[in-house]
Amino acid sequence: MPATANRLRCLLEGHGQNVYQGATLMNTAFKRRSWVESANGHADFPLQNLPLGVFSHGQTGPRGGVAIGNRIFDLHAATESGVFQGQAADVADVASRDQLNDFLALGAAARQALRTALLQLLDEDSPQRDRLQGMAGLLLPMSECTLHMPARVGDYSDFYVGIHHALNVGKLFRPDNPLLPNYKYVPIGYHGRASTLCPSGTAVRRPSGQTLAAGQESPVFGPCQRLDYELELGVWIGPGNVQGEAIGIDRAAKHIAGFCLLNDWSARDIQAWEYQPLGPFLSKSFATTISPWVVTAEALEPFRRAQPPRPDGDPQPLAYLLDDHDQQGGALDIELEVLLLTARMKADGLAPHRLGLSNSLNMYWTVAQMVAHHSVNGCRLQPGDLLGTGTLSGPGEGQYGSLLEMTAGGKQPVTLPNGEVRMFLQSGDEVILRARCHRKGYASIGFGECRGVVLD
């Protein structure tokens, strides 16, 4: 036990290393194949991804696992069988628990140690291939498993860094001045509700609240009539900070453990009445759906890009938000997609219809800038905290991340291929978010799906 504690202490002390450099070394595996056949060419979970999550199978309780193809590599079974050695064994033991908070707290060095071991174990030329293939219960069919929240989220904050969404929505209410004066200086955000975060597949019940109809002076109480989705990324916090101590922009990337998809369900009619002067409350707090797999920062390393330059005339970020390294590689090239499957489409055996296709390069602020700003006042971030990016729409039609934008605020209905018409979501509608990373010469990886069905 003392040896285990010492090895974990070494990893914790090493979490401040250059995470970009370490991740680059980890991704020299981009051409490797796995003996898990379903992983080779898998749209989301090839060997190069290895996202972590929490699952249960049959009568077993929740435990940590790794997605590989259409299987889940059971970390608990692997550690019990002595599959891992040294530091990787210690990290795998922590990651095998019923929540990933303890694993996320270990930082980049621990993630890299586990990733290295998994790449070696699951490679088609692994010396342990025969042994692993013969172990019952090590690889479980994902279709037979229940996926849970990957971490116990203490705090959830949602940002507003998708500038095209901000412009599109702003034009609906302030055509001549769509962006408020602070937008290009401050990564705008608000504190959300962690208790109603839920994993993909959880049904979402239509909320009720106060709404004010056009031309009326008094509100009425009743079910939301303008229910919407928002296409976002979620950001998982790794090591936290001490209350009162800010996370500098030059160190912010070391506190980012991984990413997921996030649907920030929104009751637009409730929001319109309640949001002044303090922002959204009941219109957002009823449900937020996430994809259940944590796609690590290391897996996304090949898909880093320079932050897109700001338009001429835009102000430079204040000093506490500006770092050359972050500007050169702090953006991510992730293709984002939102689809709709209505109850009628499902009954008729039709495929989901794509509503929007966008990219995370549409973020006006980087994730590191979000973290630096969130903590600059001394706010404490903790392992397993979740940040939302805000809706990541693109600049044109076909790239919207919400129905509010697609319908011009509920004025232009959307006609689906089967003839159904939508202004906002109806009972039985299922919203599906997907994400993919592509780069020539590299294996593509994905996030899995983030799904939710609307119930009345």
UniProtKB/TrEMBL annotation:
Residues annotated as domain Fumarylacetoacetase N-terminal: 48-150
Gene3D superfamilies the record matches: Fumarylacetoacetase, N-terminal domain (2.30.30.230), Fumarylacetoacetase-like, C-terminal domain (3.90.850.10)
Enzyme Commission designation: 3.7.1.2
Keywords: Calcium, Hydrolase, Magnesium, Metal-binding, Phenylalanine catabolism, Tyrosine catabolism
Cofactor(s) the record lists: Ca(2+); Mg(2+)
InterPro entries: Fumarylacetoacetase (IPR005959), Fumarylacetoacetase-like_C (IPR011234), Fumarylacetoacetase_C_sf (IPR036663), Fumarylacetoacetase_N (IPR015377), Fumarylacetoacetase_N_sf (IPR036462)
Pfam families, per database record: FAA_hydrolase, FAA_hydrolase_N
Pathway: Amino-acid degradation; L-phenylalanine degradation; acetoacetate and fumarate from L-phenylalanine: step 6/6
Enzyme type, top EC level: hydrolase
Binding site for substrate: 160, 174, 271, 275, 391
Active site as annotated: 165
Binding annotation for Ca(2+): 158, 230, 232, 264
Family under the similarity heading: Belongs to the hydratase/decarboxylase family.
Matches recorded under PANTHER family: FUMARYLACETOACETASE
Protein name (record): fumarylacetoacetase
